[in-house]
Structures are given as structure tokens and as C-alpha cells.
Amino acid sequence: MPAFYAQLASDRLLHFNGDQVPTFLQGQLTCDCLQVSESQSVQGALCSAQGRVVTDCRVLCLGDTHYALRLRSDLRDITHATLEKYAMFSRTQISERNDQWTLLGLWGEDAATVLRTIAGATPDGRDRCLTTDALVACQADDAGEAFEVLVTRAAISDVLAALAPQARECPEAHWQQNELRRGLVRTTAELSASHVPQVLNYDLAGLLNFRKGCYIGQEVVARLHYKGKSKRRCGIYSVAEAADLEAGATLAPEADGRAVGSVLRIIRAAGEPSLVLALITVADSELPLIVKDAGTHRPHLQPVPLPYSLRGSSEAS
């Protein structure tokens, strides 16, 4: 059964209402919010004035003047408070309404087929959306093998019942590993306001638009893009034994033991190797790594292929 789904308790929606919402969000986020419609979402980030990522998000249109940000649950309050300061100057209302939708991740080779049996069709490309009375489904990858699905409270029982015979339910950690393998680094509370978007690979993953105009922190982000290059980025690594591995551990190449990075996050999923998100020097990002000063038991980290090259640079899109 090459289709899987998970209920996403770690994600929530932050809702926006008003006829100026796209214009309002355009001045806050790193993505082009003027492109958003019921059939088109965009991924982006909210930065601090210092250009550090507060949260990543997906911007969705849920109705004529109803929009939402999909973001991490542990960052919804700070995102709400940050944007509320600017919303008072726009005809935009922000609310959490967290009981209206259930968020699902659906992935695998047969994910599109499963979605088609439930919704009658599928989105027609990455970040494209399919909207029905019961759900909104957004394609999360280029291949059409990963979808974010928002289901209304009234329809969730029927949707889960339809999914059960066609896809295997997994813990949320499996979806989070799928996100990393797709090259999407999610900003958690521990990472919030600590890194510029380029360090989190957001320019490579399509979360930055350098032609859209100004937004909070834009000057810092654009300066690095046009006049510099990030010497550190996020690498993804697979490790068979991660029981003793912790965030903050120093990483080194197996060959010479130089300190070249550190562990940011570990995602452990039952039956699968653990995935490690690491802050790493770009020049060393393709090397197998070990935990420095870990004694005789040193977890071995193998680089995971990503859909982009950490050594490359993004287009000024």
C-alpha cells in the first residue's frame, strides 16, 4: 500500500479576513501573496526586522476574503502577535479559530490516486490547490506524491473513513521526515528568530521571492542574496542509531575530526532510520559525519540527497 497519511497535530492555521488581506500579507512575508487564490497557494516565511526567520508558512485562500497561514502550532501565538501590530493599519482581522479544520499529510506513490477517489480530482502542480466543500488539498512537491490536506470539521469522519482502506495511517513523524526529504526545513520554536532564510535553505526550496518588493527583514535577506553567499546551510542526514544523539551535538567528518556543524533537530520515526537536521558548512555538506567527542560509540550520519544542491545558488525569482 504505497500511500500513507498522518494527522498533523504540530501544525495549525492562523486565519485572516478582509478584502485587503493579500496586500497586507505581501508587506509581511517573503513570498508573493498576490498570487494566492483558491487554486494557488504559496510558501514563504515571516522574518524579524533583523532578517531572521520567525516562522515558515503556507498561504492559502479559503474563501472570497478568507485566507489562512499554515504554520507550526508552537509559533502561532508569536506570529499572531507580530502581525497584529501591523494589521491595525489594514482592514484585516486575524483569528485562530483552531477547531474548524483538521490538517492531514498524504504521501506516497499512490497518494494522488487516493486523493482523487476522495476529492474527485487532484491539484495540477506544486503549490496548486483543489477546493471542495469538504477539503482543501495542496500539492507539496513537484512529483505529485505529497499533499497537505485541510478537512472541515463536519467532513473529517467521512474523509478518515475513506482513507482507511486505501492508505496506511502513520505517526506524524513520518510526514515530518517526508518534509525533510523534500528539502523543506520547518521552523520550530527552538529555531525561531535564529537564522536568516538562506541558512534554512528557503531560497533553494522556493520560499523566497526576490522580485515581489519590500517585506519585514527584506533588506538583510536581499543583501545576502545579491552581495554574498551563505557559508552555512541546513543538511539532512540519515542515522541508524540515534538514541544518544541530541540537539546541539557537534559534528565532524569521519576523516579528520574537524568541527564543521551541529545538530539542530532529530526526527525519529518508528521503523525508519532517524533523520537529522544539521547546520553545516557548505563545503563539508556532502561528507559522512560523526558526532565529535562522543567516545567509542559515535553515531554515523550519512547525507540524504535533496532536490537542490547546497553548493548552488537560487535564482532571483
TrEMBL record:
Pfam families in alphabetical order: GCV_T
Residues that hold substrate according to the record: E148
Gene Ontology biological process terms, A to Z: iron-sulfur cluster assembly
Membrane-crossing residue ranges in chain numbering: none
Domain GCVT N-terminal: 15-120
InterPro entries in alphabetical order: GCVT_N (IPR006222), YgfZ/GCV_T_CS (IPR017703), YgfZ/GcvT (IPR045179)
Domain of life: Bacteria
Protein name: GCVT N-terminal domain-containing protein
Organism: Chromatocurvus halotolerans
